[in-house]
Design brief:
Number of strands: 8
Structural class: alpha+beta
Helix content: 40-55%
CATH superfamily of the largest domain: GAF domain
Radius of gyration: 20 Å
Number of domains: 2
Distance between the termini: 52 Å
Oligomer: single chain
Shape: globular
Length: about 270
C-alpha cells in the first residue's frame, strides 16, 4: 500500500499519477511525473512501485519509464462494457452513421475535459477517426462545446476562466466570444466546429442528458472540413439533435423542448 501523509491525500496522488497517462505520452518517467504533479521523486517512485505490483502500470527495463499495465486496460474495458451511456447510444450511433456515411462519436465529460467513449467509423474512403480514452478540453470542438454549454454556470465559468488553449488556428480562445457562442448552443441544442480541435476536421454535435437533467455526454458527426459544408450542417443538425434526444430518453431523461434550428451557419473561420 502506498504510504503518504494522509489517506485521502495519498489516494488523490495515486489517481493523479494514473490520470497523467490519459493526457500525456504513452510512457512516463519518475522525474517527469514528479515535476508535473509537484511531488518528490521518492513519493512518485513509491506510488509507481505499488501500482506496478498490481499490474496498473508496467516498467520498461530499458528506458526505465512506465506505461499503463494490463490491469488498467482491464478496468477501462470493463467500464466501457458496463457504461449505460455507451449501451444506450451505440445502436443509434450506427443508425446515424448509416444515414450520413460519416464517423459518429460518443463523448462524456470528465474532470478538466472530456473523453471519447466510442465511435462508429464512416464508410467514405477518406474518413475521420478519433482517439478513444484521451482527455480533450471542453472549449475546442463541437462535442466539448455542446457539453460546456449545458454545465452549471459555475462550472462553465471555471472552464472559461482557466485559459483557453489554442489547439489549432481555428480554436476560439477569447472567453467572451466563446461565452456568446455557448449561449447560442444552449438555445438551439447543437454545436458546430470547423477546424477547432483538428485543423482539417468539421463536426456537428448535440448533448445527451441524464435522468436528473444533467449533461452526461454528446454525440457528433464528423468528417473532413470540405464535406462539412454549411448546407451539410443545416440538413444534419436536426437529425443529430433528434438522435441525442432518443439516447437521453433511453437513459430516463425527461423530454426537452424542440430546439430552434436555424438555417446554415458559417463553418469556416
Amino acid at each position: 500500500m502506498v504510504e503518504t501523509s494522509g489517506g485521502t491525500e495519498g489516494t488523490s496522488r495515486v489517481a493523479d499519477v494514473l490520470l497523467l497517462f490519459v493526457d500525456g505520452p504513452s510512457t512516463l518517467g519518475v522525474s517527469r511525473i514528479a515535476r508535473e504533479l509537484g511531488l518528490s521523486k521518492a513519493v512518485v517512485h513509491r506510488i509507481l512501485v505499488s501500482l506496478a505490483g498490481r499490474g496498473m502500470v508496467a516498467l520498461d527495463p530499458v528506458t526505465r519509464e512506465y506505461r499503463l499495465g494490463p490491469a488498467a486496460a482491464a478496468i477501462g474495458a470493463r467500464a466501457l462494457r458496463e457504461s449505460d451511456l455507451r449501451g444506450a447510444a451505440l445502436p443509434l450511433l450506427r443508425e446515424l452513421r448509416d444515414a450520413t456515411h460519416e464517423t459518429v462519436t460518443l463523448s462524456t465529460p470528465v474532470p478538466h475535459g472530456r473523453v471519447y467513449l466510442d465511435q462508429v467509423v464512416g464508410t467514405h474512403e477518406i474518413k475521420m477517426t478519433v482517439e478513444l480514452g484521451r482527455r480533450f478540453p471542453l472549449h475546442a470542438g463541437s462535442s466539448g462545446k455542446c457539453m460546456l454549454a449545458f454545465l452549471d454556470p459555475e462550472e462553465r465559468e471555471e472552464v472559461l476562466g482557466a485559459g483557453l488553449a489554442a489547439l489549432t488556428p481555428g480554436t476560439v480562445t477569447d472567453p467572451d466570444v466563446l461565452r456568446a457562442e455557448l449561449d447560442r448552443i444552449a438555445e438551439r441544442r447543437y454545436a458546430v466546429s470547423a477546424g477547432e480541435r483538428q485543423a482539417d476536421a468539421g463536426s456537428v454535435a448535440a448533448p445527451v442528458f441524464g435522468v436528473s437533467g444533467e449533461v452526461i455526454g454528446a454525440i457528433s458527426v464528423c468528417g473532413p472540413r470540405y464535406r462539412v459544408t454549411d448546407e451539410f450542417v443545416a440538413a444534419l443538425a436536426p437529425r443529430v439533435v433528434a438522435v441525442a434526444d432518443r439516447i437521453s430518453h433511453r437513459l430516463g431523461a425527461a423530454p426537452r423542448r424542440t430546439p430552434v434550428v436555424a438555417g446554415a451557419e458559417r463553418t469556416a473561420r
